[in-house]
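Run log, item B.
One chain of 461 residues. Sequence copied directly from the ordering sheet:
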Amino acid sequence: MTSTIKVNNIQNQCGANIANKCGSTVTLGASGDTITLACGASQTGFGRTGTVDWDTTAKTASFTAVSGNGYFVNTTSGAVTVTLPAGSAGDIVSLADYAATWQTNNVTVTPNGSDKIGGVNVSTTLSTEGQSVTFVYTDSTQGWINTMDSTSNVRGVNFMTATGGTITTCGNCKIHTFTGPGTFCVSAISNIPGNNVVSYLVVAGGGAGGGADQGTNGGAGGGGAGGFREYKSPVTPYTASPLDGNPGGTAVTVTATAFPITVGGGGPGTDANQGGNGNNSIFSTITSTGGGGGGARTPAPTTVGYGLDGGSGGGGGYGNCSGTNNGPGSGNTPPVSPPQGNNGGDYGGLSNPGGGGGATVAGSIGPSPGGGGNGGAGATTSITGSPVAYAGGGGGAAKPSPPPGSGGTGGGGAGVGNNDGTAGTTNTGGGGGGGSGCGAASNSAGGNGGSGIVIIRYKYQ
């Protein structure tokens, strides 16, 4: 049952014979009760607590504020002017940046008539992202004074923010490309865990082709490509290479920290010796191994005809006049999944050096008589927004008349006849081509390996 008491006025009584004296407290309700005013009723005399009642319907056009109210002002579509009410002492108005866009489209706050803002009868501009302000009217001298001003922008973050390298965009993704050492610096991560899993391409420096001694009867092996490792995050759509490590590979979930980037240089080609291995490229927990150098062509008794192991292996050369110690280098060394590269091509006999291994195809055996093997093909990915091939093996060298081996697709250098090998392409991880010494007046060097590259892609909007 509900009881109703109807009165016009409740007040304490004054007088000598009244127990409830003037100045004592009149209590409505008991502890824990809620006193509710009927719909449409208003109150006076209770005073304000220094806060406002917030209007949760965002304002998108100019309006006149009402004392006691707070307003969310949305300037996404354009600037907004807020006119303050005619001020009386104690009046209060608050404003807050609804969409964090006041830095782009400002809010102009205008006093009513001859009222002042901070002692001056002029308008003021709010232009800070995420700002919120509270104005209280004091008197006719100072008018409205801003008592609270927050410039913090406390919001959930749906997307990560980062700097470093050369930054481009493709659709809703940002792409950071590192062609040399640098830092991928993440300043904010998303509150959606999947958006913090990045796509990456890490290609190591390619191995150099082998060199040849002057006057020797044949050529050297091609350099192996730098290791190729890729992972495509589900939130960054693009056409990945066949070596995409998702699923089964290694995902990288970033945190708000700095990630040093290492971009491996290509291996150096040297006269009449094995090509140098390429250098590793590194991002977070991902290391791609430098390509293996190509085997040399030297006379007996030297034994440097074998290709070296690496991301992809170097091609076998003609180690000495007996044709010994001339096998190819092994790829995917050390092993990772998916494989980061392939073996070099074997020495084919009769001075037929092998090509360096590529990311997707092993190097070829040199064709008889005296031809150089082709470098293995690299892998093509569209992580940058366009299809680009990386990590092709270098071609084996040849005698003057047979054809030298071609570089594998993805930056591999060609083998040559009677000259230094062709270098692998910069920032592809291509292996260098082998050099040939058939009848040459001086030693030949293998082509240098191409430097590597690191690319990181993530969703930013």
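Observations after the first pass:
- Residues 15-21 have pLDDT under 50 and may be disordered.
- Residues 157-461 form one domain.
Flagged for discussion on Thursday.
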